[in-house]
Amino acid sequence: MRLLIAAIALTGMAFASSQALAADPLVIKFSHVVAENTPKGQMANRFKELVDERLAGKVKVEVYPNSQLFNDDTVVPAMLLGDVHLAAPALSKFGKYTSKLQVFDLPFLFKDLEAAERFQKGPAGEKLLTSMTDKGILGLGFLHNGLKQLSASKPLVEPADANGLKFRIMQSDVLASQFEALEATPLKKPFSEVFTLLQTKAIDGQENTWSNIYSKKFFEVQEYITESNHGLLDYLVVTSDSFWKGLPDDVRSEVGKALNDAIAHGNKIALEKAVNDRRRILDSGRTKLIELTDEQRLKWVEAMKPVWKQFEDEIGKDIIDAAVAANASS
Ligand code: SIN
């Protein structure tokens, strides 16, 4: 009888522990700095939905937007420690880990998002996904946000208008040189501080996409936006190489597929937001739009383009040439 009771108790324990296992899915934490109504915010949320649908009970995604968990300076070290598993910093924020991704910061490199996409999907772009594996960082895919505009507290029509002004930039030496070429002062600051810096007039301006300018309300504290389309703000979705390799094969494959589908969704949103958030900002009447003539735009190109030569050796001429070639439609 005692034996029977012990056997029943053991079976019960085994059942309880298998229940506990079933109730303990693998958690993937995804941390980012932007609002949810942005291409990256929507991509992260779609990724969570797809994983919930396709890997229910096995894997659970937790999304932390708006720098709630980490900002872009701290997220990659946190990821390498295993405190978070996915992040998608702007390509400008990887300078510490590789000089190759700096190609994306070269001013006036891509004529539009389609050209950036052709480069990212081509052999030179694909190779960049693994450009940081020696540091334990693996790129899983590129995601678009859009082309950057210049916002400021004074009208920027000609490059000389930026002389002496202070601009917030992302953590990028190329972007620093771009503003130094205008005889302006660049300040590397986290995204989470930009609104306050602009509002308190600690800085005069910044560069960003229509979607970030809208979702973070920069347009409410900047009198002018120059539609310069002078640079790209895209992302690299990254994970830690060891985390990724440690996933069971079937889980890694399904998570990878869900991520690719979510990126495709985010890219669609990016194209829509470049039009709709621009319109929302202009409709608000809070800021004045400066549209450049071809002649004025050429002056900005001439002022900023010397930065290319400065970084050619660090980035690699072959990578720059491949990016330029992507401007010719296939
Ligand atoms: C982001 O889009 O993730 C942030 C961009 C920035 O830091 O300006």
Q: Can you tell me about this structure?
A:
It is a single chain. The protein has 330 residues and is of the alpha/beta class. The protein has a single domain (91-329), classed as D-Maltodextrin-Binding Protein, domain 2 (3-Layer(aba) Sandwich). Helix content is 46%, strand content 18%. It is built from 13 helices and eleven strands. The protein has helices spanning 2-22, 39-54, 75-81, 113-121, 123-128, 173-180, 194-199, 210-215, 241-246, 249-284, 294-304, 306-315, 317-325; strands at residues 26-31, 59-64, 86-87, 137-147, 149-152, 166-169, 185-188, 205-208, 224-227, 232-240, 288-291. The strands form two sheets. The protein has a six-stranded mixed beta sheet. Strand 1 (26-31), helix 2 (39-54) and strand 2 (59-64) form a beta-alpha-beta unit. Helix 4 (113-121) crosses helix 13 (317-325). The chain starts with a helix and ends in a 5-residue tail after the last helix. Mean pLDDT is 94; it is low at 1-21. The structure holds succinic acid. Succinic acid (SIN) binds at residues 33-34, 40, 90, 145, 170, 191, 208, 212, 233. Succinic acid binds at residues 33-34, 40, 90, 145, 170, 191, 208, 212, 233.
Strand order of the largest sheet: 7-6-8-5-9-11
* CATH third-level topology: D-Maltodextrin-Binding Protein, domain 2
Number of domains: 1
The name of the CATH architecture is 3-Layer(aba) Sandwich
Bound molecules: succinic acid
Class by helix and strand content?
Answer: alpha/beta
**What coarse outline follows from CA principal-axis ratios?**
globular
Secondary structure tally, helices: 13
Largest sheet: 6 strands, mixed
Q: List low-pLDDT spans.
A: 1-21
| Assembly context of the chains | single chain
